[in-house]
Amino acid sequence: MKLTILGSGASTPKINNYTTSQILKIKNNYFLIDCGEGIQMQLRKLKINFSKISCIFISHLHGDHYFGLIGLISTFRLLGRVSDLNIYAPKGLQELINLHLKLSQSWLNYRIIFHALTSKSQKIIIDNSDLSVKTIPLNHRIYTNGFLFEEKFNERNIKKSKIKEYNFKIEDLKKLKKGQDVYLDDGTKIKNSAVVKNLKKSKKYAFCSDTAYNTNIIQLISSIECLYHESTFLESHSDLAKKTMHSTASEAAKIASAANVGKLILGHFSNRYKNQENFLKEAKIYFKNVFLANEGTIFDI
Amino acid sequence: MKLTILGSGASTPKINNYTTSQILKIKNNYFLIDCGEGIQMQLRKLKINFSKISCIFISHLHGDHYFGLIGLISTFRLLGRVSDLNIYAPKGLQELINLHLKLSQSWLNYRIIFHALTSKSQKIIIDNSDLSVKTIPLNHRIYTNGFLFEEKFNERNIKKSKIKEYNFKIEDLKKLKKGQDVYLDDGTKIKNSAVVKNLKKSKKYAFCSDTAYNTNIIQLISSIECLYHESTFLESHSDLAKKTMHSTASEAAKIASAANVGKLILGHFSNRYKNQENFLKEAKIYFKNVFLANEGTIFDI
């Protein structure tokens, strides 16, 4: 998986400071996670092909997480998109998109498949042999979900030495990749485990924005490779964090530590802070492997 | 009047190419004309004080003219706005703003006064002693208005030599400024015309975007100081201009020439053109005093 940060600001876009938006590439699938105002300009700047975006995930309906969506949807049409677009978002967004289209007497040449999220418990929203996506119910002022992305590795890689030794036929190679045993022409059974490498462990990325400090999510993100957790405030503004149902850098790091994740990315920084190095400093007290969601940064997961 | 170009692109915002938006300053009133996606970032870049914007005029409900509005409205709240905001726009926009606010469970600490435009003939929408604003019905794919802004100069300036000669009282000066005659202590009548300078001519700016070539507007903009007229295409794409109900640079210049305006500004350039110098070249065949609506350009009117 490859995660590209498009924006990490909170509340309102500024020059060189777009609001929350990320592109996650999983096995040639390009997923857009949240979509702040003007994000289509970031996609151009970072040379991300608009037509490759197949799914958009919207955490919640505060403007800094979705005001760029209607513009992006329009631009898709202008660019000649024909392939389906899946949108996973809280209920209500479809009505808004439809009203925009109605007022502008516009149409789309592609199909939007809306998946209205309403459940307050974790739901599997995508599950196939390549990947899965589950919601992570968060605790914010309005209905909000994080998302847990899993990249699956179901195909076994066969040891090169064994391919040479047994000179497997193509159909046998396919069976071995799927984990099955095969038989040689003379009837000898070749056990799968004897010729394949260990199955690559699936990898997981969790996106958690926006949320108050919420220990309920720890079990849902246990031991994952990478966690993005909002940290709108520093501890010095913990009163504001409580009031607005956001997290501090310390709280994000405590969650990362308790969940034993591999890496923590902090973002959704309040505009009141000029320098974000203090977020790193504060988080590192509780969790060492921590990074800032700087615009344009690419994280390999 | 001072006109600042925030964006002049058509259809979709790109890096350094925002869509149609302008700020017109008339006598300390800051009017925002159209509001493309991300325009709040341009306002910051050009150091325009958000709180000074008292009125927003939206020509029509195609996304490149209003997708930045909901974001700007939200940012006004975050910045602590309390003063009224007047929005002059086609009917329907209010419903959209209200739906956005409802879905995000947001509120505003200031009042939006919507002025829903529906008339297909010219209407006076603002008229006071300082200025007036009238609609200019345009001919586009959906209901569209241009806007005619007039800066009024009602106060006479009194000749310095006469002030010295007659030693007018303050109340007499006020009367003279308003165009009235006054009487000296000895009963002598002083005719207004004998002591005041000629009244400064009012100045007019017309914003006309988007529209097919439309000679009906010529009489509405006759002899004004400055005309902004869209020119989405060059003549080489006049078929596209007809089909999409836009104008070419030639057509914009012909309108400017027929209306005998002082200055023509071209904008709303299609993204297909890399170089906009050809718009100038083409327009100059029909009208000499022509300029491009380059981002950040300020026109004194």
Describe the 3D structure.
With 301 residues, chain A is an alpha/beta fold. Chain A folds into two domains: 2-153 and 201-300, Metallo-beta-lactamase, Chain A (4-Layer Sandwich); 160-195, no CATH class. Chain A is 24% helix and 26% strand. Chain A has nine helices and 16 strands. The first copy, chain A, has helices spanning 39-45, 69-78, 93-103, 160-166, 170-177, 192-195, 238-244, 249-259, 277-284, and strands spanning 2-7, 21-26, 29-33, 53-57, 85-90, 112-117, 124-127, 131-137, 145-151, 182-183, 189-190, 203-208, 226-230, 263-267, 290-292, 298-300. In chain A, the strands form three sheets. Chain A has a seven-stranded mixed beta sheet. A seven-stranded mixed beta sheet of chain A has the order 7-8-9-12-13-14-15, covered by helices on one side. In chain A, strands 10-11 form a two-stranded antiparallel sheet. In chain A, β14, α9 (277-284) and β15 form a beta-alpha-beta unit. In chain A, α8 (249-259) crosses α9 (277-284). Chain A starts with a strand and ends with a strand. The relative contact order of chain A is 0.14. The model of chain A has no long low-confidence stretch (mean pLDDT 95). The A-B interface holds A 11-15, 37-38, 40-41, 44-45, 61-63, 67-68, 70-71, 74-75, 78, 90, 92-93, 95-96, 99-100, 103-106, 141-142 and B 11-15, 37-38, 40-41, 44-45, 61-63, 67-68, 70-71, 74-75, 78, 90, 92-93, 95-96, 99-100, 103-106, 141-142.
